[in-house]
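Figure S7 source data.
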Amino acid sequence: MTPKKSRQEDAEPSGPGSAKTAAGARRVLGVVGALKAARITAKPGQVAYPGFIYNGGPVITAPLVYASFWGALWSGSGHQTAAQRLSQFTQDLLNSNFMNVLSQYGVGTGKGSGRFGKASFVGTVPAQLSDSGIHNVIQSSINAGVIPEPPKNNTSEALIIFLDENTEVKDPTLGVVMCEPSGDTAFGYHNTFTTAAGNPFYYAVIPSLNDACIKNSCGTGSGCSIQLTETQEQRRTQVASHEFAEMVTDPNPPTGWYDQSDPNSGECGDICNGEADTITAGTNVWTVQRTYSKYDDQQTSGANYCLSQTASPEPRLAGAPAGVATQG
Ligand SMILES: [Zn+2]
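Tokens for the predicted zinc ion complex:
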């Protein structure tokens, strides 16, 4: 998830699949936290994150990504434009050099190897959603033919859900409280559930991230992983890129690419949480978050391990599943 704070400042983050480590520190999975992650220094002759490994579970090797816009506000004209822009962002992200960082993990084969499915709109959703409430909305949308049923042994399809300003997430037992009046713990998260047809469904949830949401989470400090100086769209795309990178590399946390010794959270987005950068696609410049690159960590002995893009696809790491281009 996107935790709100850095590893130092966020004393007790929690999240889906969170668990106490042997050392007693709480692990967070899939959540974008409020504070920026701090860079760490590698031990001599080592990488910065030697514990970041592939744990043998599913990876989205041929990304086919859908977007879904939840809440009644998305039907307004300003929101329709915003939704169109976010769909374009998702398409551009899959076509960008951002994908060249993910190829090392067996996610696609670099720029242009992923495909955007389509956008859907779900106007009627509860104003306050738990994670299981989100499963219910996805399942009923599958039943209605609005959201596609994923394939068996899904290694391709994933959904990014964008919530409107009237839709909150409150699931304190999972550590996911987003855009509530108080007690927020996260700016985004990703998770999975098994559909009624028995297939694994992978999804990320991006709340509205309006000013009120930022202020009650981490205020105006520079340590916040997203900033009030950013536009709402920039906040959404930054968090969406964090969750996208994690969802495709670790769709069933923590069985994919994950560092169980990282006290903050350990997914590829968390290690670089809050490090904003931009990607360019045609005339569009989008704000994204940098992603942990094990390959660059290895190549630079820990000096440089957070990247938003590389000029060419990074070579697949030893033991990684084989990435393929999505057909069509
Ligand atoms: Zn995360």
